[in-house]
Amino acid sequence: MRLEKVFRKFLASLFLFITMSIALEANAASLDFSEMYSGASSEGLVFSDTLNSLNGSQVTMTGFMAPPLKPSINFFVLTETPMAVCPFCSTDADWPYNIVVVYVDGSVDALPYDQEATVTGTLDLGSYMDGDTGFVSQVRLLDATVE
After folding, report:
1. What is the residue range of the signal peptide feature (predicted)?
2. Are residues 10 and 67 in the same domain?
3. Bridge pairing between strands 37-41 and 44-47
4. How far apart are CA 98 and CA 78, in angstroms?
5. What is d(CA 117, CA 27) in angstroms, rounded to the nearest whole number?
6. CA-to-CA distance for 83 and 81, rounded, in angstroms?
7. Residue 6: which domain range?
8. Is residue 93 over pLDDT 50?
9. Is the pLDDT of residue 58 over 80?
10. Looking at per-residue confidence, does 70 or 107 come out higher?
11. How many separate domains does the chain show?
12. Pairwise CA distance, residues 104 & 56, whole Å
């Protein structure tokens, strides 16, 4: 009888956790690469009003994982179109202007470069240099999950 009560509480807690996870993801705003910039100036690309308004919020984006430096990683570059070459490994790599650096909690296995990935995380804007890699980014998703 006691074990049955514990099991019921466990199932109820599990259901609540799953429901809350789904609700949080459902509340994430959808962001498309085409919505990121409103133009360019002499100082570079200009963040769009949409991008600025979502700063600090949960967003979901779909794109492609650029080939990473190693198979198991805690960050990667999400691009609008597939990139077959490692952007860090070639000096003549043609970086697209519409990229997002995605930091995951823990690690994620690299996906094939042509497989779509849907990512949800907290949008973070502004110049940032990664202390480990020296990689500079303007747009990031933090604490992201990958589907």
Report:
1. 1-28
2. no
3. antiparallel
4. 9
5. 19
6. 6
7. 1-27
8. no
9. yes
10. 107
11. 2
12. 16
Task: In whole angstroms, give the CA distance from residue 101 to residue 87.
Answer: 12
* 41 and 9 together in one domain: no
Kindly give, in sequence order, each residue whose CB lies less than 8 Å from that of residue 38, ignoring residues fewer than 6 positions away: 46, 47, 48, 49
Enumerate the H helices of 67-130 as residue ranges. none
pLDDT value, residue 43:
81
Quickly list DSSP for 29-64: EE--GGGSEEEEETTEEEE-HHHHHHTTSEEEEEEE
- If you search the block for the tokens 């930091």, which residue do you land on? 103
Q: Confidence band (pLDDT; 50, 70, 90) for 94?
A: very low
Encode pLDDT of 131-147 as tens digits. 888 888 899 999 999 98
E strands present in the chain: 29-30, 37-41, 44-47, 58-65, 72-79, 99-109, 116-129, 136-146
